[in-house]
């Protein structure tokens, strides 16, 4: 037997060599196939310049969009007066470019929240001064006049003018009261980390307050571990306990407040809000007498925008967006509040489009967008032009467009994936283009779409990948037995022979509005041009991904058809994919596997227990297993509460445990603050009682992303070897 295995290994090695260089899993997880990216590019307001950290990390430099030439050095660690620092992590700039906040000692909390030490830098005088000597800060926010900074420390708000600081709130306390910062669930599911807003005249500061006293606590067990080591738990494990509201449970009580700097008076806004409602945004406007507050009901099918007066706390409704199912959270970030106009993305007519209102909420019209709007980059109120991203030639593509109330102009190609970063005067933009088979190319274009110059092309990576003899990814479509047309991509072995039959590994995510079938270099189960999928392909597997019902890019009806029953249609579509694949002449229908992470892990379990035994093996990484264990905002957006939707919540992997078919591996981080390991623990118990065999891997101190040290390499090796052994 040993000799036979060695002979097989020799044959496999020879095959790989004939096909080109082989892909090492360790090389992949170490980032050897990562494309070069441009990041940290900050457009300077009202100009055609941008600021960026220098390659050596020592300077912040201004450049011309058009020429790429340096125009000035804004900050240099070796050329400051006052305080001295050797390194920095990031920066913020006032709109007028006169002051910078230099960030050091970054320490992450959750996905978007972190603490850091900050320094105030005067660009003209080169004076550098520590923001505060009293400990690290969160979300330092410049006043519009650039003379004051508000920040949060230990859940309380402070204001400084650079010479001294004043504490504005005193009731902040961990796991009880948070001022100016969203709690965990609001940060995670409404995608923001700053709940402060200055008035236009810099005389008042407004904020959202979160009272999470009645929110139930979840505790994660922590160990010493490694990468990093937590020495405080070297002998006994400890607990990290935080407030996490699960579906149907109590949320934080939210309220909005204003502080007058001159009088020192604090008042609460008289904001009409359901007792269990949300305040998902607070924004500064150009009017000193107007702060904008967004509210949303618990079902998230009604979004209201209020003009709030920070002087007296009065609130006036100016606009309401409603939807029979839910208002998309992603659209909320694209809302623009101008001096006289409001720009609102909405899918009320079936696809995400742009609507224009006056400042008092009167509908003025709908922009003539040609296809679904997927991002809003900016709005020039003077010209009426909006700068946006839309779906391109197919749901898998993206293009950049400029639209006005009467016209729409695509300024990038329709094929591939285009995204933009516009200059502060909207005269130029950095266009990022890629497709599924070509890494990112960065070019500067003017606002007519004319190419000015190329900035970065990743030709070195293209040359490197050419040595691996990779077959291009193939896009395909098929119709399910229910007549639903689905989009997919496929990766085949380099020496693919249509006369042979191949095993298949299916990857999917399947969550509401998400897309994995994209014509973008981020395509693939682990991104990076699908190099992890090519790792499977070089071992003789075909890798397939199909976006089922509920995913994005195809309009509201397709995306929202899973409402109140998430997991039902998604799992049916993955089973239908496996059945369709099994009918292809080059597919071995008895050797099809499926895997996914997070929602993809959930749908892996759902698909393997859907009732039709089409999957021989599967891997679920960090899967939700019963939506009553997940957070309020995300879950209830698509499911309402367990009390309101008992039948919908009953559609879950735990209740389907007896129907599980195929060899199953489950992987979970023990310190996952997002999808708690409770999900896997309870599912494992259900499998035990159903007398189902399975394997589970747990990762000490790892969160939802499961990385650190050798962790990611180990995880992906478990995933791949599970299929090698069981398909």
Can you count the beta strands?
44
CATH names the topology of the largest domain as: Rossmann fold
Helices, by number, come to 13
Poorly predicted segments: 1-19
Relevant CATH superfamily of the largest domain: Alpha/Beta hydrolase fold, catalytic domain
Mean pLDDT: 95
Based on Cα principal axes, name the global outline. Answer: globular
Highest CATH level, the class of the largest domain: Alpha Beta
Strand order of the largest sheet: 37-38-40-39-41-42-43-44
Biggest sheet overview: 8 strands, mixed
Q: How many domains in all?
A: 4
Helical content class: 10-25%
- In the CATH hierarchy, what is the architecture of the largest domain at level 2? 3-Layer(aba) Sandwich
**Radius of gyration, taken over Cα atoms and rounded to an integer in Å:** 27 Å
Distance between the termini: 20 Å
Looking at how many chains there are and whether they match, the oligomeric state comes to: single chain
């Amino acid at each position: 037997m040993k000799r036979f295995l060695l002979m097989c290994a020799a044959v496999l090695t020879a095959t790989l060599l004939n096909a080109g260089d082989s892909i090492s899993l360790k090389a992949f997880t170490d980032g050897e196939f990562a494309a070069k990216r441009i990041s940290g590019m900050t457009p300077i307001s009202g100009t055609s310049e941008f600021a960026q950290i220098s390659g050596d990390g020592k300077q912040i430099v201004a450049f011309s969009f058009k020429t790429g030439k340096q125009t000035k050095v804004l900050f240099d660690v070796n050329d400051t007066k006052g305080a001295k620092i050797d390194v920095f992590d990031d920066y913020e700039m006032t709109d007028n470019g006169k002051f910078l906040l230099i960030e050091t000692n970054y320490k992450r909390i959750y996905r978007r929240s972190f603490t850091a030490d900050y320094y105030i830098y005067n660009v003209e005088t080169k004076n550098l001064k520590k923001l505060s000597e009293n400990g690290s800060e969160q979300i330092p926010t410049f006043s519009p006049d650039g003379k004051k900074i508000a920040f949060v420390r230990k859940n309380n708000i402070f204001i400084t003018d650079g010479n001294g600081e004043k504490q504005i709130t005193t009731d902040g306390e961990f796991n009880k009261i948070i001022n100016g910062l969203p709690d965990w669930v609001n940060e995670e599911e409404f995608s923001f980390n700053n709940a402060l807003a200055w008035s236009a005249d810099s005389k008042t500061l407004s904020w959202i307050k979160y009272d999470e006293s009645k929110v139930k606590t979840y505790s994660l067990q922590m160990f010493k571990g490694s990468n990093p080591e937590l020495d405080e738990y070297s002998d006994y494990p400890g607990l990290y306990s935080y407030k996490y509201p699960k579906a149907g449970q109590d949320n934080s009580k939210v309220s909005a407040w204003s502080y007058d700097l001159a009088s020192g008076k604090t008042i609460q806004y008289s904001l009409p809000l359901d007792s269990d409602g949300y305040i998902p945004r607070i924004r500064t406007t150009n009017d000193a007498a107007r702060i904008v507050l967004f509210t949303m009901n618990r079902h998230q099918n009604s979004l209201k925008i209020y003009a709030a007066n920070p002087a007296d706390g009065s609130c006036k409704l100016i606009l309401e967006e409603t939807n029979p199912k839910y208002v998309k959270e992603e659209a909320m970030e694209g809302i623009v509040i101008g001096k006289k106009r409001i720009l609102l993305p909405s899918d009320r007519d079936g696809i995400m489009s742009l609507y224009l209102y006056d400042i008092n909420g009167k509908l003025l019209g709908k922009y003539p967008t040609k296809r679904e709007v997927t991002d809003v980059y900016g709005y020039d109120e003077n010209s009426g032009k909006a700068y946006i991203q839309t779906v391109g030639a197919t749901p898998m593509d993206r293009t950049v467009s400029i639209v006005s109330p009467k016209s729409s102009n695509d300024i990038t190609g329709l094929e591939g994936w285009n995204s933009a970063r516009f200059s502060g005067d909207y005269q130029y933009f950095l266009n990022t283009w890629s497709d599924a088979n070509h890494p990112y190319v960065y070019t500067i274009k003017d606002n007519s779409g004319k190419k000015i110059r190329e900035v970065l092309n990743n030709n070195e990576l293209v040359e490197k990948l050419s040595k691996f003899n990779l077959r291009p990814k193939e896009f395909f479509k098929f119709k399910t037995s229910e007549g639903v047309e689905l989009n997919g991509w496929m990766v085949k072995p380099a020496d693919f022979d249509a006369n042979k039959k191949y095993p298949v590994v299916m990857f999917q995510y399947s969550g509401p509005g998400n897309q994995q079938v994209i014509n973008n270099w981020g395509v693939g189960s682990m991104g990076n041009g699908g190099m992890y999928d090519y790792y499977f392909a070089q071992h003789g597997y075909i890798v397939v991904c199909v976006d089922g019902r509920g995913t994005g890019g195809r309009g509201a009806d397709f995306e929202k058809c899973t409402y109140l029953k998430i997991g039902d249609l998604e799992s049916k579509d993955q089973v239908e994919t496996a059945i369709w694949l099994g009918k292809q002449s080059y597919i071995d229908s008895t050797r099809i596997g499926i895997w996914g992470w997070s929602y993809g892990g959930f749908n892996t379990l759902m698909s393997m227990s859907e009732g039709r035994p089409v999957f021989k093996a599967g891997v679920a990484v960090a899967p939700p297993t019963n939506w009553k264990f997940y957070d309020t905002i995300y879950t209830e957006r698509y499911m309402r509460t367990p009390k309101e939707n008992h039948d919908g919540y009953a559609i879950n992997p735990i209740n389907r445990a007896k129907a599980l078919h195929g060899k199953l591996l489950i992987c979970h981080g023990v310190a996952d603050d997002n999808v708690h390991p409770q999900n896997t623990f309870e599912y494992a118990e259900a499998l035990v009682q159903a007398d189902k065999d399975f394997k589970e891997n747990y990762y000490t101190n790892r969160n939802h992303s499961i990385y650190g040290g050798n962790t990611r390499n180990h995880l992906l090796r478990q995933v791949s070897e599970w299929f090698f052994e069981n398909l």
